[in-house]
Write a structure and sequence with these properties.
alpha+beta; 3-stranded mixed beta sheet; globular
């Protein structure tokens, strides 16, 4: 197994927390919240131009993207039935960027 490292170019005031990223094959979902800002999400998009990057704003009270969705298999995302998670899921399916 080969592991590749990718260095991102930082912007001023850039914040990025890996708990706010979900990688789905050729798509990356980035959640903007207390620990990741718009500049951090844009760094991910620029570092991985071959991936579609979906940037969503996390609802209040959600600290990590994994609280409302996570990968369960190669093509499976687990999302709770709650209104907050469903709203984020809807955004992800409508607004991929890339």
């Amino acid at each position: 197994m080969k592991i590749y490292f990718k260095q991102v170019t930082a912007y001023n005031n850039f914040c990025l927390n890996c708990l706010l990223l979900i990688v789905l094959g050729k798509e990356i979902i980035v959640g903007i919240g207390n620990y990741t800002n718009k500049e951090g999400a844009q760094c991910v998009a620029k570092a991985f131009p071959e991936y579609a990057v979906t940037i969503i704003t996390l609802p209040e009270g959600v600290k990590h993207l994994h609280q409302i969705m996570t990968m369960a298999g190669p093509d499976v995302i687990v999302v709770p039935r709650g209104q907050t998670a469903q709203k984020c899921l809807q955004v992800c399916s409508i607004y991929p960027t890339g």
